[in-house]
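Quick one, probably user error.
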């Protein structure tokens, strides 16, 4: 008989983080849509037009043919031009903002399941029969699966709980393949925040 000390996830980890990724991406897309509804509503007096949303396109030349762009162009023509020329919400633009709508569309139909791997299992302390202490180890493995830490021939005493940290990366075959989820979402958030700030500054300058 032996005694295992092992890591075992209590729930599917990829699915847990997929919900957070989906919510984050959707909130970023929604922030842009709220801006579009606000600026068009202020110009037309119809603040409840649910057909208004922020324009995106696969290619820059296609942007001006989208219903979202046309609606903004009719209400606030120079704001539409600013979006086209400065925000560049299209795949071949250089602003980096286009993936937000693509990730949001993917998440509407399928979870964006990240690859979850151990970064560290640390801080834990196990005292074994001879009095020696085994401390946390560095592991690299799939965090969705059972992972043995140590095997003993006598019952060990866990003196300090282990702490687990994981690394999230985007799955292969899609946007941001193998890139870190947290830094990527942080960058997209900064792009949206910066874009909205630029749009608001443009509108303030325009109103002077």
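Nope, works fine. Designed sequence:
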């Amino acid at each position: 008989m032996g005694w295992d000390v092992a890591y075992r996830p209590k729930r599917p980890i990829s699915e847990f983080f997929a919900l957070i990724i989906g919510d984050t991406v959707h909130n970023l897309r929604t922030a842009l849509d709220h801006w579009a509804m606000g600026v068009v509503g202020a110009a037309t007096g119809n603040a409840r037009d649910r057909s208004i949303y922020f324009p995106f396109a696969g290619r820059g030349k296609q942007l001006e043919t989208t219903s979202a762009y046309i609606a903004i162009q009719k209400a606030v023509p120079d704001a539409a031009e600013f979006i086209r020329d400065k925000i560049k919400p299209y795949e071949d633009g250089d602003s980096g903002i286009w993936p937000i709508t693509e990730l949001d569309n993917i998440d509407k139909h399928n979870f964006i399941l990240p690859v979850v791997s151990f970064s560290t299992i640390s801080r834990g302390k196990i005292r074994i029969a001879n009095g020696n202490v085994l401390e946390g180890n560095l592991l690299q493995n799939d965090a969705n699966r059972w992972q043995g830490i140590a095997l003993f021939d006598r019952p060990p005493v866990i003196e300090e709980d282990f702490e687990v940290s994981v690394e999230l990366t985007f799955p292969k075959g899609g946007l941001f393949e193998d890139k870190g989820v947290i830094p990527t979402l942080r960058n997209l958030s900064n792009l949206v925040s910066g874009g909205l700030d630029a749009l608001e500054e443009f509108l303030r300058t325009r109103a002077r």
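The mean pLDDT is 88.
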